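anyone seen this seq b4? input:
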Amino acid sequence: MEAQVRDGQSQADYMKNIRKARLQRQVLQDPAVLAKLVALETTPVYNAKGDIVQAVSGASLEA
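predicted toks r here
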């Protein structure tokens, strides 16, 4: 069964969100994984012109 992608969200974005959720769960089991999660969440996203369109902060780690 194929997972449904939300409106306005590409398949790539959907897969990135799954990866982030998986890493967040792994951090609870192994704090050494935190560096990977922070690197993933603080990486800016660029459009085709090379402009930053989204920069995700580590604020979600505080939740």
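The helical segments are 11-29, 34-41. The CA atoms of residues 29 and 39 lie 18 Å apart. kinda curious what u guys think
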